[in-house]
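Problem: given the chain below (499 residues), write out its structure.
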Amino acid sequence: MTVAIEMGNTSAGQPATLDLEELLATRLLVQGNSGSGKSHLLRRLVEQSAQWVQQAIIDPEGDFVTLAEMFGHVVVDASAHTEAALQQVAARVRQHRVSVVLNLENLETERQMRHAAAFLGGLFDVERDYWFPMLVVVDEAQLFAPAAAGEVSDEARKASLGAMTNLMCRGRKRGLAGIIATQRLAKLAKNVAAEASNFLMGRTFLDIDMSRAADLLGMERRQAEMFRDLNRGHFIALGPALARRPLPIRIGDVQTDGRTGNARLMPLPETPREDARDLIMKPGENEQLRVMARPAPSTADILAQLAASSPPPPPAALSLVAEVSAAPAREPSAPKPSLDEVLREVLGDPDALYRNVAQVYQDFLVRCRQYGVNGRILDLAAFRRKMATARAGVDAEAADTPEWEQALGLSAAMPEDIQAVFLMLARAAHDKAPCPSNAQIARARGSRSPRRALGLLDHMANAGLIVVDIDAYGDRVISLPSLGWQTAPGNPDLEDEVA
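Solution.
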């Protein structure tokens, strides 16, 4: 069944329609400067298609929460959930086919990126049985898929960019149709923008943005000037779901209003100067005094306090240290533990293998300072190697053998995200043990999703690092050509606990 939703009118007064089924297969990119009508366009698209397809809206400004009352979207306040909880929420969203708005307005930019990445990852990683068609609308996409590094950490940027890339590049097979809106094409990562086949280009003024918009629409450079003259709510449409040739359209009216609204001039109140001063300098009758929240101390500050053996830090710092690590008490006369012993204590937590390496490293340093051990001898790079070995399940005795030194040397030249998996496969092949299951490989990758293991094995096979074979009984055998080792047959679907 073909569903055509009406987006507005063309310059000739004819209805401008959008083929919803074609959009699900080809994705959409919306571009326009602030005030050009991007949010209005997205709202029109969401309202018109709400009865036909499930929707998820990544909303950094809280502008789309007003859809809930009229169209039944569930508003998810990201600030009230952890990243892990948002992944589970996203999985249930797909299982129960509920349309949602992920409200990120109460978070700073870096946490917006982390929470959006977790939510998109949850949508992406569900089981095949729940791959129902779904529109995923991302407003201000340049925040989540930046073209260059900014003030946020590399870890947050990579996580967010990876989630957006998965949405636009691999989401179609999982039923996810990405609709992304950005103020400037130059700020948006090219590999994300390049996957869209439908375009709605609004008003823009910079030469580089006009040139890129004209190139995407197949227009001549001299025609790029027209983007400066577009009025608010006017866009140039092109794509298999919109039009085969660049088509000027005007977006129609919407049924709901955003919370931001439009700025309009209003006369100032006629207040005498003396009264105006009292109004702003004195508290009102029902006004409550706001107390500035004391910022939580950074991990570096806590470590410095511990190293200097200063008086006990404030309760906020103590609670933060308690969350990071709770080292067991030792007798004062007991010898200091070695770095390997401290590391084993840190990795004794079952969730440690699934946490970020930098977080586990900070936990390791805190424990070292509590025991009076210089943990800085083991820098972050060396700690990553030890974490990769631990995730691979290699014990200390096997790690000291010449064969394992050769495997470590090969893994050191590989990307960080596949080192642990390569070492796990090397250990199984060296011991002639059964090939690890998808769940075990996912754990070595630091993930709980067995489906990610299949993609990682395909990537390693394409890179020539491994050779994957399936025997007559459906068991998997993996060979490592660089080492000349091969695993025994193993069930790829075996649960991690059983394995």
